[in-house]
C-alpha cells in the first residue's frame, strides 16, 4: 500500500502477518477518541469507534451517527469488581488512598487541560460527579487518567451494567483493572459467565 497524507507517508507498505478470517475481508480498524472528528474518521475509514466511557443516557445520542452508518461503537473503561458492592467500593477508595493529593500540581494540571485539543481529556477532567451512575465511578480519573472511569460493583451489578451498554448499541469493550491480571481473571470467572447467560436470555426473548 502506498499513501501520502498530512501526517503519514507510506511507500509500498505491507503487513507481514497474514490476515485470515471467515467473517471479514480485512482487519478491524478501531478509531479512538470522543470528538466529532474522531467519530467521522471512524465512519469513513474504520470498523469501530472507540471512546471513553460515560453514563448510558449521555452516550446513547452521541453514538447514533456511527450506528446509523453501520459501524460498531466501543467503550474504554476500567472494572473494579468484588463479591459485594461494599467490597468493590472499598477497593475503589483504596486505589486512590495511596496517591499523594497534595503532591499534584493543580495549576499545571489545569494548564494541561486548557492547552489540550483532546475532547476526551477536557470531558473527563471536567467531570464534577464522583458517581455518574450507581455503578460508574470517576474517582480515580484525576490521578490515573480518563481510562480510569470504572464500573464498580458486584459481578451481577457489573454484568447488568455491561448489558445496559449493550442495549444502547455498544458492542466492543476495552477493559482494564488493578492489579490488571487479577481483575481480568476475576472478570473471566465471575462476570463473563453472567453476561453470556444474560445474552442467551435476551436472544431467546427476541426470537420468541
Provide a descriptive summary of the structure in words.
This protein is of the alpha/beta class and 208 residues long. It has a single domain, classed as TIM Barrel (Alpha-Beta Barrel). Helix content is 47%, strand content 17%. The chain has eight helices and eight strands; from the N terminus they run E-E-E-H-E-H-E-H-H-H-E-H-E-H-E-H. The strands form two sheets. Strands 3, 4, 5, 6, 7 and 8 form a six-stranded mixed sheet that branches. It has a two-stranded antiparallel ribbon with strand order 1-2. Helix 1 links the parallel strand 3 and strand 4. It starts with a strand and ends with a helix. The mean pLDDT is 87.
Q: Summary?
A:
The chain has helices spanning 36-45, 56-68, 85-97, 106-115, 119-125, 141-144, 155-167, 180-207, and strands at residues 3-4, 9-10, 30-32, 48-52, 72-81, 136-137, 150-153, 170-176. With 208 residues, it is of the alpha/beta class.
Q: How would the blueprint of this fold be written?
A:
Blueprint: E1 3-4, E2 9-10, E3 30-32, H1 36-45, E4 48-52, H2 56-68, E5 72-81, H3 85-97, H4 106-115, H5 119-125, E6 136-137, H6 141-144, E7 150-153, H7 155-167, E8 170-176, H8 180-207
Parallel strand pairs: 3-4, 4-5, 5-7, 5-8
Antiparallel strand pairs: 1-2, 6-7
Helix pairs in contact: 7-8
Count every beta strand, where a strand is a DSSP E run of 2 or more residues.
Answer: 8
How large, in whole angstroms, is the Cα Rg? 19 Å
The total count of helices amounts to 8
CATH topology: TIM Barrel
Largest sheet at a glance? 6 strands, mixed
The proportion of residues in beta strands is: 15-25%
SSE string: EEEHEHEHHHEHEHEH
Output mean pLDDT: 87
How many domain modules? Answer: 1
Secondary structure: helix percent: 40-55%
| Terminal CA distance | 48 Å
Unreliable segments of 5+ consecutive residues: none
Say which CATH homologous superfamily is assigned. Luciferase-like domain
Note the overall shape: globular
What is the CATH-assigned architecture?
Answer: Alpha-Beta Barrel
CATH class: Alpha Beta
Structural class, from helix and strand content?
alpha/beta
